Amino acid sequence: MIGCPESEDGIHLANPLRIGIVGTGGMGGHHARELQQRSDARVVALCDVAEASLNRAAEAFASHGEHPSLYRDLPAMLAGQELDGVVIATPHTQHTHHITLALEAGCNVLCEKPLATEAAAARAVMELAERRGRVLAIAYQRHGDPFYRRAHEAVASGALGPLRLITVLIAQDCLGNFLPGRTWRADPALSGGGHFMDTGSHIVDMLLFVSGLQPAAVFANIDNHGTDVDVLTALSLRFEGGAVGTFAATSLSPEWREEFSFYGEQGVLNLRGDLTLHLRGARPEKLEPSGPTVTPVANWIAAIRGEAQVQAPPLYGLRVAQISEAAYASQRSGVNEPVR
Questions:
Q1: For residue 271, what are the CA distances in angstroms to 133, 200, 261, 262, 286?
Q2: Which terminus of the chain has fewer Cβ atoms in its 10 Å neighbourhood, N or C?
Q3: Among 217, 214, 210, 173, which Cα is nearest to 195's?
Q4: What stretches in the chain show pLDDT beneath 70?
């Protein structure tokens, strides 16, 4: 196996970094296009089980005079290339297997969400990354968005006082993604779940990132709406320390709505297109985000080079997996389920 070379003194990084991408569809293609624009990284290998997708990706690179090596499975790519990092953009239930293979080959990893569909698998890859001394990051792009960073800072400042209630809504018009046979997202063996596991992963992540809370228990009402995966989700959440919350998701909406409210003992922070802080006894104040947007790819590359901390570390992937696992367990049992 070639993988990612290492010496006793540490990792030998190429300049530019040599990157392989596994999963060349939507998000794999998105990350590939960003990497093509960078001078400090170069995509040297592409991998996908779907020949048509792999060929489309190869053609996109060829149109820019680049010719990455092509592979149909990840072990072959890791055996055939010297890589500094691997971007994983495969179906959800394959993530932890692919992360494990890449880390064991000595590679740094950027993985699309969710990190894992089960909490135990999330813990396993977190521990492996620590043992191997490699960067493991999740492509949760909102962590690099000044809007959400400002929200996180407002809550962390303590201005709201202790948080007591969080309400979250995500509404999209995306039922077509979950109709049987339409996409891999409609197959629970590949997706691990529907709208809640997909877009919901981002929203649960932001609930946790902004609030700083840890989940304790979940009660779920989930409706598949005639499909094989969830398309309507309503959760009642309890957090360590006693705060409670609600999470609602629908893929049947004619409009996009993404809303968060964080209620503390001294005020509320609302994220509804803009960011508004309303403290008890004061007028509502619109908070202005500042600073640049840092993409998952940009942050990951900086973290590999030791120039930045990982903005979406695997701990958030574990917390999201804990909530999703408890939610699906609650739907099956009909009772409140503890987060494990």
A1: 37, 16, 6, 9, 10
A2: C
A3: 173
A4: 1-12
